[in-house]
Design goal:
Blueprint: H1 24-39, E1 42-47, H2 57-62, E2 67-72, H3 81-84, H4 92-108, H5 110-117, E3 123-127, H6 133-142, E4 146-148, E5 151-152, E6 155-156
Parallel strand pairs: 1-4
Antiparallel strand pairs: 1-2, 2-3, 5-6
Amino acid sequence: MDKRRDPKAQERAPEQAEPSPIDEEELDEGEEGEEDEELAPTVVLGRFGDLRGFADAALVKKYAERPIWFLIEDDADLMELFVRHPEKPAPRAAAEALLGVLRSFAAAESEALQGVLGPTDQIGFGYHENASFDDVVSSFEDDGFEVAFALYEGKVVPEDEDDE
């Protein structure tokens, strides 16, 4: 019971200042900024040529400039790359060969990829047939991804935190 309103109350309750109204815009901005930093998904981006030494040399040479990526499969729904940059149909044999290499790489480097992406039981991957590397980087950034450039000669080589 509120002692300020009970006439039988022995002690007077201290006067309480009226709470100031909460600015909802400030509250929303602060919460969103914190959530985005903590929950931003990560994508490992590179070029097919970065898998040199892992895949067949002729295949790597032919598709060296194709942008490739690895991410946590659950985060793939956040990606709108193919909406921004529709893809021309690729020859089936070439697509299967490229995806086979990416699948094998993801399996072989799973632990290292999870060191960059975070723990997961499903790593997603892909490539774009005709978007430029810069377009792919920009698209992932626009989708809220933290972009990691951690592929080098068929290995995942995370950036050292000391180098930042």
